[in-house]
Amino acid sequence: MHLAFLLEREYLPYSKWLGTAFARLRCAPVLQPTLLAALAATDWSTRERHLSAACETAAIMHNALGLTEPLPERVSPFYGRPFQVIHGDRFAAALHAAIQDESVKRLPRWLGNTTQWADSTDVLSNAQWVPRLRALSIQKALRTTR
Fold first, then answer.
1. Domain extent at residue 145
2. Do 94 and 112 have their domain in common?
3. pTM of this prediction?
4. Which of 7, 33, 94, 115 is deepest in the core (most CB within 10 A)?
């Protein structure tokens, strides 16, 4: 769901409003029933089929943005195993290769954003904490890349 907001270049609301805001995204008519079906699945193969469809939708959305050369939009086996994946590492590598801004290129490779490790409105809405949160994020990314 978070990825859908990024792909549609929409603000990600805090968790209380996530479902409501997600339902208003352009991709919701396709993704919402697919994700709900994955949650309702009672066996792994059914869940995988629905999650694969969601990943393929996200891949189509990525390609439509034109940020990178088009990438495969279909899931395929995970290195010969019987599990289907979209190979998200290819998307990450293509996006990283497309970065033009030198200051962004110098950031640690696995630097994410605060919402990836903090789900607190108090933390996320306090502008005074931004410098410290930035430093923590960079420290965490540097530890991850070692």
1. 108-146
2. no
3. 0.82
4. 7
